[in-house]
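INTERNAL AUDIT FORM
Audit reference: QA-55
Scope: verify that the stored structure record matches its stored sequence.
Auditor: D.O.
Record contents follow.
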Amino acid sequence: MFVHPEFNPVAIQIGPLAVRWYGLMYLAGFIAFITLSKRRLKFFPAIKELDVDNLLTWGVLGVILGGRLGYVLFYKPDYYLHNPTEILAIWEGGMSFHGGFLGVLLTCLVYCKVKGWNFFDLMDFVAPSVPLGLAFGRLGNFINGELWGRPTDGWWGVVFPQAGDLLPRHPSQLYQMSLEGFALFAWLWWFSSKPRSRAAISAWFMMGYGGARFIVEYAREPDRFLGTLSLGLSMGQWLCLPMILLGLVLLAWSRGKPTALQTMAPRP
């Protein structure tokens, strides 16, 4: 059994300027996305390095707006219906991965319309560069001592004082970092190392993330204001089921489809 050290959330303090660990994890995720995406340009002739920078900017907006609105709609709709002025109070916490995911999809759809690209070609380009950012985000959750797991008798249990008790709990943040972060990255990076049928990479991202998150949710403490829902599943699990099913449909649909190398115009 281990006791969470309750890290100082501020990594660097220079006078009034405070740089938080969670912010550094986001920065690491952004750097990973740019670095990895630019290594994949050879498979997507129409995409330029400037597009990668633009996609990161658009994606950040999609993550923030979608993540917040997703939390409002999926997790606390009644509360925010009666307290609408708090919807934009992001600094108080409350973000949803699934909402952020939908926000990124929407911004990428708009970007494809502007550039005249096929939506799934762009999604296949983006998908392998995302999981490392997710891993850094989960590491940030662990450093902050938030989103802890359910109680466990295992020797690897961690006591999170922030939970308000002395129960050893699953370090579910590290489980998610390992599965939906590093493991999913390794699989997608290998799978995308050669041209694949349109939407196949996107399909594996959706199935991989959805499946990994669904499994880890059994070890993660449900939100106390929600608990478990129908069939004993958490809200996170219910939101992952459509991802898994849609991924399966996309994978079946992708068979025989052309690759981006065959359909995207070369870079000038």
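Auditor finding: record pair retrieved intact. Strands lie at 2-3, 10-14, 17-20, 158-159, 168-169.
Action required: none
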